[in-house]
Amino acid sequence: MNPRHPFLGLGIPASDVPSSRSSRAGLAIAAGATTLALMLTSCAGGASVDGGSATTTSAAATPTIASSDENTSTTTAETLAETAAAAQRLLETLSEEQREQLLHDYDDATRTTSWSNFPVTFVERAGLNLSELTGEQRSAAMGVLAALLSQDAYETVVGIMEGDAYLLENSSSGETSLGQYYIAFFGDPTDADAWELQFGGHHLGINATLDGDEEAITFAPTHLGVQPAVYASAEGAEVQPFSGIYETAFAFYDSLTDEQKADLYQGSEIASMVCAPGDTCSYPTGTGLAGSELTDEQKQLLLDVIANWAGLADEQTTADALAAIAETLDETYIDWSGATVYDMTQGNGIYFQISGPDVYIEFASQKGSAGADVDGVITAGWGHVHTIYRDPSNDYADSVEQQEASGLGGPGGGPAGG
C-alpha cells in the first residue's frame, strides 16, 4: 500500500460495481473487487472526518460508492428529481461547516475557474474533497453523480478517477494530490430551481447545470481527460475509459471520402489545445471540413462523437442536446491532425476539433506524460488526452460569464501536459 494515499488497497463488492459493458463507455471492469476503492473507501484503521472530528472506521463498515445501476432515469424530469434527491441525501450527512464548504451562490463567478485539467495542487477546487469525507459521505457524494449521469457516462468518469489513482500508485510522478476529487453545489439543489453540480479533479471537470423551471440539463462546459488511456485494474482486467470516444471518432473519420479527408486533415503533427479547461475560449471556427459537406449518415456519425460529451445524462436530455446541435451542424467545422488509423502502438495520437454555433469540442492527445511514467504503459500521446466541451451559445446555461484563469492553472502555467 502506498503510504501517501489513505484509500489504496480495499476492494468493492461485485454487487456495487456498475455492470454495463457498452462500447461507448469502454470499460472492462471485472466482477469482484475494483480499484475504485483507491479513492473512495477507507482502509481498515484509516482516519475519517465525522462532523469535524477524527474517527476511525473499519474496512468492513465503510459504505461503498453508489452503483450506476440505481439510475433508471430516461427523462430530463426524472433526472432532475433524482439528482436533487441525491443532493439532499448528501447534505443530510454533513456537518454545518461541511455544508458551508459544499454550497455556493448560483451566480458565484469563481465556479468558472474552479475546474481544470491540472491536479488539485495547482488549481484550487470549490467544495468538499472526497478524500476528507467519511465512507457514508463519499458514498452519498458519488450517489449524486450516479443519479445525474447515464450508466455509460458514470462508468467513464469512474474509469478516469481510477486511472488517476493508478498513476499515484504506479507512476514516477511525485504529485501526491493525484486521485483527489471535489464536489460542489452552486445554487439550491432542488428539482424546481436552477443549480450547478461541479465535480472534478485531475483530468476531470464536470459542470452540470440543472434547471427544473426550464426542465433542462446542460453539461457545457465540461472537461474529460485520461491518463493512462489503457490500464489494468487490481484484478488484472483491462480498463479503457476513452475507447468509446476513439471508436466513434474513427468511425466518423473512416466514413469520409478522400476529398472530404483532404479538407479535414491538418497534418501529421498533433495540434495543441486551443481552449484550456477552466479558461476563456475564443471558439475558433472555419477550419477543416464543413458540416454542410457531410451526408446524412456522416452527420449522424458526427453526432455520435459529440454525444460522448453532450450526452452524459438520460435519453431525453441527450436527444434534446443533440437535436439543438444538429440544427446548426451545416455551419459547424471539423478538423483533424495526427494519426489516421486507430492503432495505439503507432504514432503519437490524434487531435480533432468540432466548432460551430452550438458546440465546441477539442480532443487533444498530449505530447508528454507530465512526469507520470509507468513502465510498459503508454502515458503520453494516445495514453494522455485532454478534452473540452463547451457551448458557445449556452455555457453554464448562460447564467455566469467565464472568467480568465490565473496562477498555475492559467495559460502557460502548471506542469507540462497536465
Describe the secondary-structure layout.
Blueprint: H1 37-40, E1 46-50, E2 53-57, H2 76-92, H3 96-102, E3 103-104, E4 128-129, H4 135-148, H5 151-170, E5 181-186, E6 194-201, E7 204-211, E8 216-218, E9 222-226, E10 231-232, E11 238-239, H6 243-255, H7 258-264, E12 289-290, H8 296-310, H9 315-327, E13 333-338, E14 350-356, E15 359-366, E16 381-390
Parallel strand pairs: 3-5
Antiparallel strand pairs: 1-2, 4-5, 5-6, 6-7, 7-8, 7-9, 9-16, 10-11, 12-13, 13-14, 14-15, 15-16
What's this entry about, in short?
The protein has 418 residues and is an alpha+beta fold. It contains nine helices and 16 strands. The radius of gyration is 20 Å and the shape is globular.
Note the run of SSEs as H and E: HEEHHEEHHEEEEEEEHHEHHEEEE
How many helices?
A: 9
- CA-CA gap between termini: 25 Å
Task: Describe the main β-sheet briefly.
Answer: 12 strands, mixed
- What's the number of domains? 2
Query: Percent of residues in beta strands?
Result: 15-25%
Average pLDDT number: 84
Count of distinct strands: 16
Radius of gyration: 20 Å
Shape: globular
Q: Classify the helix fraction into a percent range.
A: 25-40%
**Unreliable segments of 5+ consecutive residues:** 1-65, 409-417
Structural class: alpha+beta
